[in-house]
Structure formats: structure tokens, C-alpha cells
Design goal:
Length: 183
Amino acid sequence: MLSYNRVYINGQWGSADGSERIAVINPATEAVVGEVPAGTVGDIDQAVQAARAALPSWSLTSPQVRVGYLKQIHQELVARAPEIAELITDELGMPIKLSQRIQAGLPALVTNSYVDLLETYEFSDHIGHSLVLKERIQTGQVDINGGRFNLQAPFGGYKQSGNGRELGRYGLEQFLHVKAVQY
């Protein structure tokens, strides 16, 4: 049984405010497979304070620095994928093959897609004597008629909600910037 005694706040492991614990139960066997500290309002307040304090400096980091962090996260997700899949299977009762593909595999793929995006996206453009800074990246993926989510498909294409208009060409043309279509 895994037992965690600390919480991660402000970039470091520390003791939780309270002593209460939460049992992690495997829904397939109903066995207790682990326990974790029950976070308190104090723990949440500390985490929110740390996030607010970190935001000003983080928002000034360059795309290259962020790519470095994302690459490290991706490497760890890939290296720890078997462990993540086993933990998810124990915690959720999900079959191991699904845990491997969805819960362990998908985060690594998505993280890597953000690496690709940050390395290739043009955050500024020169038009004449002007420097145009682009503000934000809107992304999304649309599956049509029960199409399967393709992990290899490029992310991107979000423009506006197509709810109610997704069953035809109008929905695709008026509400999406299409980068790839698969069926």
C-alpha cells in the first residue's frame, strides 16, 4: 500500500496543515491501495498564495524557457508511464491497457504537442515598420460523426463554439480554422 504524508506547495514538499487522511480505494477490489493527506483550507490558501506570487515572473519567461520545462515534464511522463498506468488502474479500476494509453500516454503526447507548438509558433510578425505581437493561441479538436480522437492529429482549430452547427459544412467553415480533417 502506498502512503503519502506530504503535500507539494510552492515548489517543495511539506507537511499538510491537518492530520486527516484520505483512503484510496480500488473500486474493482474495494481494497485500500493507498492513503494521502486530506488538504485543508490552509493548504489551499498557501497554494493559491504561491501561485499568485509566481505568476508575475512566470508570465515573463520566454517560449524557449517554457519549452525546456515542457521537455523535462514530457521526459518524466514517458519515463514514469508504467508507474502512472499501474497507479491509475489501482485507483480507478481502469483496465491496464486503457490506463497505459489514456491516463499515462495521452498527457505525454499532449505535452509534446505543446513543445512543438511553442517551437514553431510565430509570436510576432513584422508588417512594414511595425512589430505585431500575437496575443493568444486558441486550440481545439473536433470529431465528426463519432470519429475517434486521433492522438497524432494536430491540435488547433478553435474559433468559436459550433454547438448546434456541427452537423454540416457550415459548422466547419464558419466556426473553425481547419488544419486537418480525418474520417
